[in-house]
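Bumping my old thread because nobody answered last time. Still need a sequence for this structure:
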């Protein structure tokens, strides 16, 4: 049995940075709050909660409490409201997401209509469009392009949620180019996501089975699963070793493993140590004597 772990599996720079900032902030005497989860992973969320950082749904007036901005970023309205209510802000937004915010504001100031390719309800996308004075257009997939609105636009700038599927994003851009005369496209998919997607286009073809590790509410993990599944039907998406079934590996000689950008290293190692202990990975496989 050959088990191959993707080089890019696990935490990206932005997630690791946000977690480090959060844990350092938790050591301060001030109470620390967040609007939502710091990243989309249950194990990381528990670690943050155990450190004393409290997740809240609404901001309330305070004196000296800290508002921790998550890795996905936040709208300008949240920053302004938190400051007005007395919070000291600690910003753990991924620098690559911050760069998208900067481009969005600069291009809007040049009178470009902002179009964001991404998941409408994702925290990162909300943060991006929340930097703008005018309403942006958000497109989930090439099949959901609002052509009635697009045909009226003469000048637009396209940005992409940092964890999007590049191939799908490029398909959307190609369609928009047919309708918008002056169109500028910034490929703002981050480097860690591109690296993960390049690996996941090769690994499913090189292995009998694939395991994708990450939370079911992680957008980047979902895309890794979708790409892998399209290339290898024996692809399984798990959050921990408890989700793994022995029957998956019958007559399997090789397993490829990768993990989303918010998946902790200990979860990955737990699975790497667990798979070789399964009966199906220990018995002689078909054709071996």
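Sorry it took so long. Here it is:
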């Amino acid at each position: 049995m050959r088990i191959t772990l993707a080089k890019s599996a696990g935490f990206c720079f932005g997630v690791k940075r946000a977690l480090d900032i959060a844990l350092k902030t938790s050591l301060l005497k001030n109470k620390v709050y967040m609007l939502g989860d710091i990243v989309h992973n249950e194990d990381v969320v528990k670690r943050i909660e155990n450190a004393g950082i409290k997740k809240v749904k609404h901001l309330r007036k305070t004196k000296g409490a800290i508002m921790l901005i998550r890795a996905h970023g936040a709208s300008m309205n949240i920053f302004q409201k938190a400051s007005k209510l007395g919070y000291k802000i600690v910003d753990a937004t991924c620098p690559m997401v911050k760069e998208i915010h900067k481009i969005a504001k600069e291009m809007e100031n040049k009178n470009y209509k902002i179009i964001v390719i991404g998941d409408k309800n994702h925290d990162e996308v909300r943060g991006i469009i929340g930097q703008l004075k005018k309403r942006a257009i958000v497109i989930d997939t090439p099949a959901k392009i609002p052509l009635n609105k697009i045909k009226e636009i003469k000048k637009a700038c396209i940005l992409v949620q940092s964890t999007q599927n590049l191939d799908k994003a490029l398909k959307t851009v190609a369609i928009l180019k047919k309708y918008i005369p002056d169109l500028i496209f910034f490929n703002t998919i981050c480097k860690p996501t591109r690296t993960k997607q390049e690996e996941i286009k090769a690994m499913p073809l090189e292995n009998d089975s694939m395991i994708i590790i990450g939370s079911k509410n992680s957008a980047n993990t979902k895309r890794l699963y979708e790409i892998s599944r399209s290339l290898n039907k024996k692809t399984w998406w798990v959050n921990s070793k408890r989700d793994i079934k022995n029957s998956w590996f019958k007559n399997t000689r090789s397993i490829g493993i990768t993990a989303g950008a918010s998946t902790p290293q200990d979860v990955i190692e737990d699975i790497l140590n667990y798979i070789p202990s399964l009966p199906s990975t220990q018995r002689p496989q078909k054709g071996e004597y």
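The longest helix spans residues 191-206. Let me know if any region looks off to you.
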